[in-house]
Amino acid sequence: MDDSQLLRYSRHILLDELGIEGQQRILQAHALIIGLGGLGSPAALYLATAGVGHLTLVDHDTVDLTNLQRQIIHTEARVGQPKVESARQALLTINPSLHITTLAVRADAGQLATLVAQADVVLDCSDNFATRQALNAACVRHRVPLVSGAAIRFDGQLAVYDPRRDDSPCYACVFPPDTTFEETRCATMGVFAPLVGIMGSMQAAEALKLLSGAGEPATGRLLMLDGRGMGWTDIRLPRNPACPVCGSTHAAA
User: Fold this and answer.
1) 89 CB-side CA count, 13 A
2) Contact present, 179 and 243 (Cβ < 8 Å)
3) The overall pTM is greater than 0.85
């Protein structure tokens, strides 16, 4: 790190659990963020301010006026722009030294597999079951940790799945691919604006812990927030040995 970086990241460096070594690992890391909406906005902002050296941003959508109630990375001046480009502008304004790759696409399973293989950590900030399953499968295949977040109405969820650990479940252990779930979208169900900020910030925190080695990531836990009363439920998630996605992988390992 040069003198400017030592000054910029000095509050991280002062943390005994992180220090210069941990910050250096962050600077050299590559994070993949799928979705630049309510969750992806705060997640990307905190990863950028923390100095994650390479960010890959994936989102097929454009900025809409209805997004601005909660998607804090975007502005009214950028309504109509691709969300990944709007986010890129915001992040480089905060930290010009970042390397940012943008893809304005709805990534399919093949694209996700390629992107995941290049990343050190993946943040699932998407809003649909198919993308979540494809992203999880790619993370299991390439043994890349996945930080999953969700938020709707006043309810939030966070989980960390780390296929590098034999005791860690994957997303499919908890939400089997062959199970039918009713898709819930903010456009029809609504969402409390600060809730996505809370959950997205927590995704960034878990990603930074995974990258730096600081603290203990929430691997194998499902954290659920009831935003009405600000009450948390913490559930331990066992790995499913018969999981169609990670079962055979762990058995082979």
Assistant:
1) 11
2) no
3) yes
Q: What is the dihedral of CA 66, 152, 39, 13, to 10 degrees?
A: 140
C-alpha 148/C-alpha 27 separation (Å) is: 22
- Find tokens 């990258």 and name the residue: 211
Query: Beta partners for 62?
Result: 82
Instruction: Give Cα separations from 115 to 64, 212, 245, 253 (angstroms).
Output: 26, 21, 18, 23
The full set of domains in the chain, from first to last, is 3-252 (3.40.50.720)
State residue 187's pLDDT score.
Answer: 65
Tens digits of residue pLDDT in 119-177: 999 999 998 999 999 999 999 999 999 999 999 999 999 999 999 999 999 999 999 99
State the pLDDT at residue 182. 62
What are the angstrom distances between the C-alpha of 246 and each of 34, 108, 136, 146, 242?
Answer: 21, 20, 9, 13, 8
